[in-house]
Write a structure and sequence with these properties.
About 50% of the residues lie in helices and about 20% in strands. By secondary structure, it is an alpha+beta fold.
Length: about 140
C-alpha cells in the first residue's frame, strides 16, 4: 500500500514542477506576443493616419490649406493609454499641381515594457497627388 501512495505523490510533485517550469517559459512568451500585437496595430494605425492626412492635404489648393487640413486630421486622432501621442514630424511638402507629402510620428507606450523599450516611436510618410485645382477667375 505504501508504494502506491508514494508513487502518486511523486507523480503529483513531478506534475507541479512541470507546470511551474512551463509557466516560467509560457508567461514571458505570452507577454512578448502581446507587445508584438501592440506594435503591429500601432504601426497600422499610424500608416492609416498619415494616408488620411495626406489625402486631406491633397484636396487643398494652397500650401497653407494643405498644412491646416493635415494638422486637423492628426489632431482628430484619439490617443489612448497605449498610443500616448501623435504629431506631424515636419511641415507638409506641397508641390502645386504635383503631389503632397505628409510625415507623422506616433508615440507608443508598450503594455509590457522591457528595459529600454518602454516607449517606441513610429514614423510614417505618405505622398498623394494633388487633386484640388484652383478655380480660373
Amino acid at each position: 500500500m505504501k508504494s502506491g501512495k508514494r508513487g502518486a505523490n511523486r507523480r503529483l510533485g513531478q506534475s507541479i514542477i512541470e507546470v511551474l517550469v512551463g509557466c516560467i517559459f509560457l508567461i514571458p512568451m505570452a507577454l512578448a506576443g502581446l507587445d508584438v500585437i501592440v506594435l503591429v496595430l500601432a504601426n497600422s494605425a499610424n500608416d492609416s493616419l498619415v494616408k488620411n492626412a495626406a489625402r486631406a492635404a491633397a484636396n487643398q489648393t494652397t500650401r497653407n490649406g494643405a498644412l491646416i487640413a493635415a494638422q486637423r486630421c492628426v489632431d482628430a486622432f484619439h490617443t489612448s493609454n497605449i498610443i500616448v501621442g501623435v504629431e506631424m514630424a515636419q511641415n507638409v511638402d506641397y508641390q502645386q499641381d504635383k503631389n503632397v507629402s505628409v510625415k507623422t510620428v506616433m508615440t507608443v507606450k508598450m503594455p509590457v515594457g522591457i528595459a529600454g523599450f518602454e516607449i517606441i516611436k513610429f514614423q510614417a510618410q505618405a505622398t498623394e497627388p494633388v487633386v484640388a485645382m484652383p478655380a480660373d477667375v
